Amino acid sequence: MNTWKQFPEKVLVLGLARSGTAAANVLLESGKDVTVNDAAASYEDVPVLALQEKGARLVLGSHPLSVLEGIEMVVKNPGIRYDHPVVAEAQKRSIPVITEVELVAYITEQPIIGITGSNGKTTTTTLVTEMLEKSDCKVKLAGNIGIAATEVAQTMQADEKVVMELSSFQLQGINTFRPSTAVLLNIYEAHLDYHGDLESYVRAKCNIFKNQHADDYLVYNADDPTLEEKVKGTKAKNIAFSATKNLYHTGAWADDTHVYFFDEAIIPLEDIVLVGKHNLENILAAVAAAKLNGATNEGIQHVLKTFSGVKHRLEFVGLLHGRYVYNDSKATNILATQKALDSFKKDIVLLAGGLDRGNEFDELIPHLHHVKAMVVFGETAPKLERVGKEAGIQVIEHAAGVDDAAKTGFSLADEGDILLLSPACASWDQYKTFEERGDIFVQAVHTMK
């Protein structure tokens, strides 16, 4: 474990929100000289005042480059891009820039199960946590799932493990952070507006195993050719998972009847509640990570027989006058929507749209064969309409937002159809978060009931 004596004394925390506030608190409690800079925060905010009372210097309302004077380390909010003026200037001055999760390496030596991937992180993180809990293992949840890693690390006991969902934004800013079990689900072109290019994005994801040792584990998707190549250089023990290959000697896999871990049958497929091939991949990854960390077959079986999905990820909202309604607002990229579409064999009315990141949506076309109608909204509505027309979809309507889209989509669906919100885009053009977008959709559906 690193010690705080090794950590620089004068630190800038750039951007507050939950992770920045947690980082500032732990740094102040560790005796560091902390400056906090946030353009949106107010001097009247209670958490900000609390930081000031602990000794932090506050620079709010703007991002002057003068905040870097005397600074030896920048801890930035993961959502702040590297072309931000303060970040770019810090790098120009050779000041290290990290994210909050790096601080965990200074707080605890307890085992960390770190989970990343372009899609499936939240589902897999939740599955692993519940599998361990149902196996009477002591475990805590943290990371990109909404709970600051440093807050959790400070409260860990000697017999506890932490399961962390980790984004590429967080992983790009680590130096020594090391999970004892790393899970790499998949790599797909995403967040290029943040990372600049695919190579940088892949490198950030692969940071999850860069500090691992020979006694650590790396669970990876053997069906992803990019990962198959990248994991060859790891020092950790490689444990593969695959929904298509027999991994009798090397990891977690499935045939037409069961899920297996090496040669051990874990659970019949017919007992698993979650639908979709992508969820089978998440399940296999979770089984591998959970078994490596002490989960019992009974604990795993209990979870897989009862777990129906996380909120906003192919969440079954219910029947609306005979229409099966699903909220997949967490589908913030094309791959997630592809997987959602491939999960159903019935006719689908697809609701999609959101922030325009500059990409096209042609990759959706082969997956639209069950879509009978589309409702598009947000900045990307024209692009999605074009793709829908090229796929031969005859009915494409525009909506002002997801509440309007829910009503329009219902009018286009017949009894027995799937009404699916799966935007294929981030939410920030109209909504603060994908959660807000999903909640508004669900509320609209309940209103129509």
Description of the molecule:
- With 449 residues, the chain is α/β, with parallel strands linked by helices.
- It folds into three domains: 8-95, Rossmann fold (3-Layer(aba) Sandwich); 107-306, UDP-N-acetylmuramoyl-L-alanine:D-glutamate ligase; 315-448, Mur ligase, C-terminal domain (Protein-Tyrosine Phosphatase, Chain A, Alpha-Beta Complex), CATH 3.90.190.20.
- Helix content is 32%, strand content 22%.
- It has helices at residues 17-29, 46-53, 85-92, 121-134, 149-154, 168-171, 192-195, 198-206, 225-230, 277-292, 297-306, 334-341, 381-390, 402-412, 434-448, and strands at residues 10-14, 33-38, 57-60, 73-76, 97-99, 112-116, 139-143, 161-165, 181-184, 217-221, 237-242, 251-254, 258-261, 264-268, 315-320, 323-327, 348-353, 371-377, 395-398, 418-421.
- Strands 7-8-6-9-10-11-12-13-14 form a nine-stranded mixed beta sheet.
- Helix 4 (121-134) crosses helix 10, helix 4 (121-134) crosses helix 11 (297-306) and helix 14 packs across helix 15 (434-448).
- It is globular.
- The termini are far apart.
- 52% of the residues are buried.
- The mean pLDDT is 93.
In short:
The chain is of the alpha/beta class and 449 residues long.
Could you give the topology of this structure?
Blueprint: E1 10-14, H1 17-29, E2 33-38, H2 46-53, E3 57-60, E4 73-76, H3 85-92, E5 97-99, E6 112-116, H4 121-134, E7 139-143, H5 149-154, E8 161-165, H6 168-171, E9 181-184, H7 192-195, H8 198-206, E10 217-221, H9 225-230, E11 237-242, E12 251-254, E13 258-261, E14 264-268, H10 277-292, H11 297-306, E15 315-320, E16 323-327, H12 334-341, E17 348-353, E18 371-377, H13 381-390, E19 395-398, H14 402-412, E20 418-421, H15 434-448
Parallel strand pairs: 1-2, 1-4, 2-3, 4-5, 6-8, 6-9, 7-8, 9-10, 10-11, 11-12, 16-20, 17-18, 17-20, 18-19
Antiparallel strand pairs: 12-13, 13-14, 15-16
